[in-house]
Amino acid sequence: MAMGFSSVPLLRRYPIYSPALPYFFSLRPNRRVNIAASLSTAEESTSSSLIQPTPSRTRWKPMCLYFTQGKCTKMDDPMHNDTFNHNCSLELMQNAAGLKNVRQQELEYFLVLDLEGKVEILEFPVLLFDAKTMDVVDLFHRFVRPIKMHEERINQYIEGKYGKLGVDRVWHDTAIPFAEVIEQFEVWLGERQLWRNELGGCLNNAAFVTCGNWDLKTKVPQQCTVAGMKLPPYFMEWINLKDVFLNFYKRRAPGMLSMMRELQIPLSGSHHLGIDDSSNIARVIHRMLIDGALLQITARRDPRSPEKVEFLFKNRIV
């Protein structure tokens, strides 16, 4: 079965996972968000919404990675739809008895980010988590093509990173340079009224949430240097979920998997596929909000010296 973008094979052997109940993708018909707006006019988008009218089901399905980038052309194919998920919303079953502990958050939205790529960034996934509905309401997802490597090295890099996950084909079909990713991301932010360059470039009532400081403290500035661009101002502060977890539960969890084990949340999808890791981090956020956690900024750059980062929590994961 061909998948999505042009005539390319179905994500080779994309792993099929056991259901991750009670956490699974499902329909939220009252929240429809247009993904096409996040694409340039030169890109093809056959999907009109991130949240599609598919039947609610408990069987976990891998996300269509062409769809996340607005490039799926198989939305009318029943077999394709039965195999892949085309819905960004996460139905996170709520403990009704525990909802009384939910605190009003200082921010309306959390931008859940989990980069992939050690040499250069290879994947830039962001899930838009609504603090009021406690659900994912939109996403921005791009694969990133390195600009300082020759083609043979890129192929080796991608095979080593994504080949074992069976998604190297979609990476080669869709990856674009980092500067283009950021350009499209800023359009996406602006259309959702989360950011305006005219207002100093800071996020509007939103903050990035990462699992650790590496993504925004280290990797994004490095990639900006490689790309010959200034660090965008909306990357000046973020929430390190590890630090919030430590201070709220009084338990150390050095990574996403350990947080999920502590909270007895089953892993969904493929670890080290950025879009799946972001979804799992969103599940952790959801559970922490139900338990009464307050997600606050944990790290902030000095605007006069962006290389200097102030960590705002006394107790934190180093």
From TrEMBL:
<feature type="domain" description="Exonuclease">
    <location>
        <begin position="109"/>
        <end position="294"/>
    </location>
</feature>
<dbReference type="InterPro" id="IPR051274">
    <property type="entry name" value="3-5_Exoribonuclease"/>
</dbReference>
<dbReference type="GO" id="GO:0000175">
    <property type="term" value="F:3'-5'-RNA exonuclease activity"/>
</dbReference>
<keyword id="KW-0378">Hydrolase</keyword>
<dbReference type="InterPro" id="IPR036397">
    <property type="entry name" value="RNaseH_sf"/>
</dbReference>
<dbReference type="InterPro" id="IPR012337">
    <property type="entry name" value="RNaseH-like_sf"/>
</dbReference>
<dbReference type="Pfam" id="PF00929">
    <property type="entry name" value="RNase_T"/>
</dbReference>
<protein>
    <recommendedName>
        <fullName>Exonuclease domain-containing protein</fullName>
    </recommendedName>
</protein>
<keyword id="KW-0540">Nuclease</keyword>
<dbReference type="InterPro" id="IPR013520">
    <property type="entry name" value="Ribonucl_H"/>
</dbReference>
<dbReference type="GO" id="GO:0003676">
    <property type="term" value="F:nucleic acid binding"/>
</dbReference>
<keyword id="KW-0269">Exonuclease</keyword>
<dbReference type="InterPro" id="IPR047201">
    <property type="entry name" value="ERI-1_3'hExo-like"/>
</dbReference>
